[in-house]
Amino acid sequence: MAEQSVPFLRENSTNKLFRLDARAREALAERLEKRTNVNFEEIEEVSTLSRRLFPVGLELDFRTLERFRALASFSQFQLLPHTQITSHRRFLGPIIVALKRLSWPILQVHLRKSFEGQQEFNARVVEALAHNVVATLEGSREKN
User: Fold this and answer.
1) Is the pTM of this model over 0.85?
2) Which domain holds residue 33?
3) Are 94 and 128 found together in one domain?
């Protein structure tokens, strides 16, 4: 059963890489539209970055792979309202809901930078954990 899930993980990771690549391209396109200091060398450098969390050929057990898949998935999030915006009030409810819906995009603009920083931190923590796993495995192999 574990062997059947690993190709799914690879496929799922591949889809995430395509989304990451698309987001990077969109960010670069936005910078180009704003005419900030971006050049083709930077674009080329970003396109050649390694997106692998673990080195090729490293054998990890299924449980570790699942944990890292979950960590990588949870490290990224979207800034969305926690629940559907509603109100239980019969007459004032529609006004309250309209005000909440109008205020949410304004809040998103102000909170986006903080959440982007948190996502970057989360990604760096997952990367550091992966490097620790690799170093531990290589250290244990050297002892044997």
Assistant:
1) no
2) 1-51
3) yes
